[in-house]
């Protein structure tokens, strides 16, 4: 088989596996096998850039960075929908329709997916572009980001039309959303509010590799174009499904308003069994011929109607308010409720956000409160049933002192949350920081779990993460449930963490707002912890993606003498506090077989350093772009003719940071 045939075959196989996994939810190979095939394809593609294909499955990992999203006019306007809330509304709508068209009316009933609307254009079976709804007439082109969504086919199958648009909704399924939030919380970041906003925010991220990490899905519901050769909405859904699109199977034909209501009521009750959120049902006249007759008002089709569900609310009693202290010292008030069934789950707790929120709704212990599960995952208290409030109830007094260590709380200007400033003496902060340090994404210390950390702190054996490195067998064995073997494993695990690379150590330190991505950026930019310790606010905010809030938090962390002391100890124990020398440059064969052209002016290295890095790592430096070039590394002021040539040959253009990532 020729190289080209091998590449084509791999692409086809990967496409099919993507489809099995993300559209059919029915994978037939393991993730490992999939990754092996993908790696093989990526290797061949980088060695043979002449076979580059923007719709190759390898392009799904993202990497393209969009600074400004291009505005694109939709070929077919994207309308909004009229809303209905009752049987009467639906009967009125049916009456209006019957005044315009005659004949037997049938309806397609579909779920109303709660996400961000999207229009995809396909030409000759390939994804040409993806555009947001915008104002309905024109939207933003977000193709690079949408390509990373695995359920969006890059190449269609079957008998598809030459060119058409397909409309759908980008959603973030609930499980994926919860997982993202767990990670954010463990990074000391504010959790995202709801899946819908997170989905639409994701589409506008500049770095498509970031989008690729988010478990987004695209659910399709309508076709637009000439010569589609379909007669009904339901038929359109089936056709789209057969071309490889993810079209949920819940759509159903209804022959009367009563049948529509049956569908509405069923999904109002059962919507929580779906993997993603819906906010209602959409009803469409099924015949496309009748749809055309009916046409549009200024804002919406006459042939379609949304039926919006009411957000579910229940009333229950607020038993008490407790205050949790996070590892960063942030205080979160939590409402403890009389357990009640809401949206398919028993709710015992609701979020109260912060002191302002409590004051705003004037909620008091003993109150009957209304709890709602709207777009948010954690239910919240909406209001208080004042008619049921006892005479002797008094306004809630927000705590002034830490519930754990009794230190007076502080509140920074402009911040809604209270903090316990007792950095070194407040138990949940001490334990939380060490638990974060050892966690899987940080130092990943095998043999040491969150509970053991609590125990070690409680026993006075450790009080910050640097103490871990001084633990010995004889201290551990007397502990409850600690056999010789587990003590041994624990010490080995701690020892092994000295090999964990700098960027993960930086994340493990638990600096507020410094999650994994920010830690990587800082590590790459500064290379050593000393460089970060010495960086001023101004310098920090100049680093890509570092804003005032993060920079301030970094400064605050390293300005603390306690923290600098801990870091000195980590240094003595041999923890990696800089990017290791061989990683930085010398003598690897990571770039073997790849040829680079360097163009423009760079921020973090000089051109000569960059060329040396390429050569030191086994790559070749070329002077002009040809079909043999694997990558163009572009800095500021890259020459326009080079840019044109690279684009014409389809050669990937990367910046200095992406390039450096190849070396890690
Ligand atoms: P609204 O934004 O409330 O005017 O509702 C209109 C939006 O509902 C459309 O722009 C779509 O993005 C979205 N939508 C979700 N599911 C469907 C569906 N099955 N059919 C049509 N539109 C839908
Ligand atoms: Zn405290």
How is the secondary structure organized here?
Blueprint: H1 3-23, H2 31-47, E1 71-73, E2 83-84, H3 87-100, E3 107-113, E4 116-123, E5 126-132, E6 138-140, H4 143-146, E7 163-171, H5 174-186, H6 195-203, H7 208-213, E8 217-224, H8 233-242, E9 252-254, H9 257-270, E10 278-285, H10 288-294, E11 304-308, E12 312-325, E13 331-342, E14 345-351, H11 355-361, E15 368-373, E16 380-384, H12 427-438, H13 450-458, H14 473-476, H15 484-496, H16 502-508, H17 516-526, H18 529-533, H19 537-541, H20 548-559, H21 561-573, H22 581-584, E17 595-599, H23 607-616, E18 620-622, E19 631-634, H24 640-649, E20 653-654, H25 656-662
Parallel strand pairs: 2-11, 17-18, 17-19, 19-20
Antiparallel strand pairs: 1-6, 3-9, 3-10, 4-5, 4-7, 7-8, 10-11, 12-13, 12-15, 13-14, 15-16
Helix pairs in contact: 1-2, 12-13, 16-17
Zinc ion (ZN) binds at residues 325, 402, 404-405, 407, 420, 422, 426.
Describe this structure in words.
This protein is α+β, with helices and mostly antiparallel strands. It has six domains: 3-61, Helix hairpin bin (Helix Hairpins); 83-308, 2-Layer Sandwich (D-amino Acid Aminotransferase, Chain A, domain 1), CATH 3.30.470; 313-386, Nucleic acid-binding proteins (OB fold (Dihydrolipoamide Acetyltransferase, E2P)), CATH 2.40.50; 427-499, DNA polymerase, domain 1 (Orthogonal Bundle), CATH 1.10.150; 502-584, 5' to 3' exonuclease, C-terminal subdomain (DNA polymerase, domain 1); 595-661, 3-Layer(aba) Sandwich (Rossmann fold), CATH 3.40.50.10190. Helix content is 37%, strand content 18%. The chain is built from 25 helices and 20 strands. The strands form five sheets. A five-stranded mixed beta sheet has the order 2-11-10-3-9. Strand 13 and strand 14 (345-351) form a beta hairpin. Helix 12 (427-438) crosses helix 13 (450-458) and helix 16 (502-508) packs across helix 17. The longest helix has 21 residues, at 3-23. The chain is globular. The mean pLDDT is 90. The structure holds adenosine monophosphate and zinc ion. Zinc ion binds at residues 325, 402, 404-405, 407, 420, 422, 426.
